[in-house]
Amino acid sequence: MHLGPATPVARRRRRLRTGTALLATAALAASGVLVGGAANAADGDPTIVSITPKALPALTDNQVITLTGTNLNQGDITAVTVAGCADADTDHIVVSPTTMYIVITSAVCATATASSTVGETITLVSTRATTDPEHIGTGTTGLFFKAPPALAAARGVLVDNAAIRTVDADKLATAPINAATKIRVTADGSTTWTTTGLSAKLNGVALTGIAIPALNEAGASNTGPGNYFTATTSATNVATASPNVPLEVTFNGVTVSLTTAFAFAGQAITVTPNSGPANGGTLLTVAGKFGTWTGATPPVTLEVNMVCAGTSTPVTVFETGTTNASLKFKAPQAIAGAVLAPCRVNIDNNGGLTTALFEDSAATPGSTFTYTTT
User: Fold this and answer.
1) Is residue 60, in this structure, part of any structural domain at all?
2) How far is C-alpha 195 from the geometric centre of its chain's CA atoms?
């Protein structure tokens, strides 16, 4: 194909490449790529050998493709086009005669048709060629744009704990910093999870034990809108100042970073025994890390509450044997409606103890207590 070096199309492409250079460089830097365009000498037509990755999320900006080939030169290649993307939304940086980066700077690349088996075609336009003043080198390299996974709009990542869901749903978006926690990741209406090729990281740490329950909590099929997978966090997590822990999911061949309303905060505690009579009086022991104090009992700033059906009942008297690693107190009398339903023991520092030695409690299976009828 011969366009001529001075055609309006060629001039427009050169202006476009200059105008988007800053966007391209920024996208590459964000991807951890060191850039510096190569003004290497190249003889002959550019060729395409391979590209990575082979799959990218559709309709997503600032995507980077690494292309290997021959006769690649920043000054000679006037344009790069990727089928499925408008050529006005791609740019390139050549780093050697055999390597270049293609940057898709706008969210315009459409999902491949279901019948496509060869992927999208990449085209390089170069002014240096053996026969033509402007030559096109084309390669079909197995590149596919695929629909990226998406989270449910409301609280897509939650602790997978039916007891806490009933007792204190507001705590479901927080996992402890000192214990592995089972969570669920819920998709929006356009994504249906499958375990094939599914992996995820929460706050940069890989989730383990990924599984997709056959049935949801309501007993219905866990497919279609609102379907979820479960996974387990690391046992050691970094506390987050705000509920925005990033989730990275690889699914359907593409990897995307998703925004969550999830946080790591507080410590996992253990309550024993985990049940007792509704009239109260059960001596409870709560194991954890509760700072330091002088005297026989903790300061008033250390608060313990029994949370049942969304209602908090304070515990005001600590029993003999209370230490900074083991709080002892008697369960209060059950409030109306709390019998045979789990309650949660909640412990707050309220700033009265050294925070380096004390974390508020998190909602975990071990933090629950159930009132029996007798």
Assistant:
1) yes
2) 16
67-124 pLDDT, tens digit per residue, is: 999 889 888 888 888 888 876 578 899 999 999 999 988 888 888 665 566 778 888 8
- Residue that has been written with the tokens 């997709």 in this structure: 212
Q: Model-level pTM greater than 0.85?
A: no
For the beta carbon of residue 316, count every other beta carbon within 10 angstroms. Answer: 9
Nearest alpha carbon to residue 141 among 124, 154, 156, 153: 124
| Selection from 15, 156, 137, 142 nearest residue 80 by Cα | 137
| pLDDT tens profile 34-47 | 444 444 444 677 88
243, part of any domain: yes
Determine the 3-state secondary structure of 284 from DSSP. Answer: strand
Rounded CA gap, 271 and 276, in Å? 12
Of 230, 264, 298, the residue that ends a domain is 264
- What distance in Å separates the CA atoms of residue 72 and residue 41, rounded to the nearest whole number? 8
Q: Give the N- to C-terminal CA distance of the chain in Å, as an integer.
A: 88
174 vs 162: CA distance, rounded Å = 14
